[in-house]
Design goal:
The structure holds 2 protein chains of 2 kinds.
Chain A (H helix, E strand, L loop, with lengths): L2 E8 L2 E8 L4 H6 L20 E4 L2 E4 L12 E3 L12 H8 L9 H14 L5 H8 L10 H15 L3
Chain B lengths: L1 E4 L3 H11 L3 E4 L5 H7 L6 E4 L9 E4 L2 E5 L4 H5 L9 H7 L5 H4 L4 H6 L7 H7 L3 E5 L4 E5 H4 E3 L2 E2 L6 E7 L6 E8 L10 E9 L5 E9 L6 E2 L1 H7 L6 H14 L10 H26 L1
Helix pairs in contact in B: 9-10, 10-11
The chains are: A alpha+beta, B alpha+beta.
Bound molecules: flavin-adenine dinucleotide (FAD).
Flavin-adenine dinucleotide sits at the interface of chains B and A.
Organism (chain B): Reyranella soli
Pfam families (chain B): CO_deh_flav_C, FAD_binding_5
InterPro entries (chain B): CO_DH_flav_C, CO_DH_flav_C_dom_sf, Diverse_Substr_Oxidored, FAD-bd_PCMH, FAD-bd_PCMH-like_sf, FAD-bd_PCMH_sub1, FAD-bd_PCMH_sub2, Mopterin_DH_FAD-bd
Chain lengths: 159, 287
Amino acid sequence: MSTRLFRLHVNGAVREVEASESATLLDVLRGPLALVGTKANCLEAECGVCTVLLDGRAVTSCLVLAAQCEDREVVTIEGLAEAGEPHPLQSAFLEHGAVQCGYCIPGMIMTAAGLLREKHDPDDEEIREAMAGTLCRCTGYGKIVAAIKAAARNMRQGR
Amino acid sequence: MHVHRATSVRQAATMMAALGAGARFLAGGTDLLIQLRRGALACDHLIDIGRIAGLDGIAIEGDAVRIGALTLHHAVERHAGFAGPLRSLIEASRVVGGWQVRNMATIGGNVANASPAADLVPVLLSLDATVELTGADETRRLPLPQFLLGPRRTAARRDEVLTACHFVPPAGRHATAFLKAGRRKAMEISIVNVAALLAVDDAGRCRSARIALGAVGPVAFRATDAETGLQGGPLSDEAFEEAGAAAAAASTPIADVRASAVYRRHLAARLTVKTLRLCRERLQEVA
Ligand SMILES: Cc1cc2nc3c(=O)[nH]c(=O)nc-3n(C[C@H](O)[C@H](O)[C@H](O)COP(=O)(O)OP(=O)(O)OC[C@H]3O[C@@H](n4cnc5c(N)ncnc54)[C@H](O)[C@@H]3O)c2cc1C
């Protein structure tokens, strides 16, 4: 298998990694970059646990090649906090008890982060539609939706 | 496997001509990468066309609409120009996979993939769309029905990139609708999908009807018998029932893990009727 050097922008830093030419972004994140907050599960974009932001948009990193990401901005769950402060979504998920086992939460939060970049005041319906491709098998989705709404409100108020 | 990035259509076509049978174009990758991973397909080279400038975007000039091949489902879903009579485009693109898939998957990929269940295909058929194909030496246009030859088979030559879909909505009052049936509401491959366009004259009679169905045959198709039956007549429930029956009769569904053939045929009729009723409602909105 042929490998090559990829130059990626991840969480604000330029990272150079050696990986197989056919490596996915997920492979590179969890492998050489050791950013294991992004989970690997179905590998077919059905479950959403591997969601990251690519140029500000939520995508499933299992279905993007590292080769497709060069010169583009990648943000993972590890890169969401700013200056040591949790992102408003992270705080709201804690406050609302939106987390049970936690496995899907990085994907949930990154999907929501993509939504909130586009819509600052989404209603329940818009949140549910955006989150439909990100599955949680522990809880209902009620608290997750409530947490996203609260985070959106806090972000609008500049908190 | 090697991944090559093309920076122009011409370059992509030339690369394809040089690399031969073991190469594939890669757009959003949401279908191709899964097929490769499942071993349903093998290839030695991927030619990444995803960042060729000018291949994405929606342009509406006068009546003519051009949807660039790299346009994301996400962009179609949000396009203000489609919020009126062309609403079926929004309805179809917003049910393709989940939010993340729609941020990667392209309209060109949906069409070029030639899946019988592709959701944008019936809509584009109902809009009488043509596909623009660009090879190393020339650009040509083909009506969509001539492009789609069978499951995962198209009339594109090896080096041809699908560069855009074009259509011109009919003059006068018209409305469109798209409906799909799946096992759940989100993230579902269609069991049956139906797109329709109805155009009416001042008296409210049907000037033209276009009905297209997917997932009930080897390729999505126009139900021409159903269309002819509506032409020139009133948009009545009875006429719609007849159109539904004709659409079901034109269907040749398979049975698979998602649905039996009998159920698919039943849905072909019912969804056709429902889609036509939606068009009728929408015609009244604009009246
Ligand atoms: C979880 C999930 C859910 C999905 N749900 C749906 C759904 O509900 N409805 C639906 O219709 N589809 C669905 N899909 C399928 C897929 O996302 C769409 O068909 C999508 O539009 C394909 O576009 P792409 O850019 O990703 O294509 P790719 O995967 O990049 O390409 C698909 C095929 O088309 C060829 N190709 C792509 N672009 C061009 C071009 N411009 N010129 C020539 N050849 C080209 C490629 O070589 C390949 O053979 C789903 C996929 C996933 C992963």
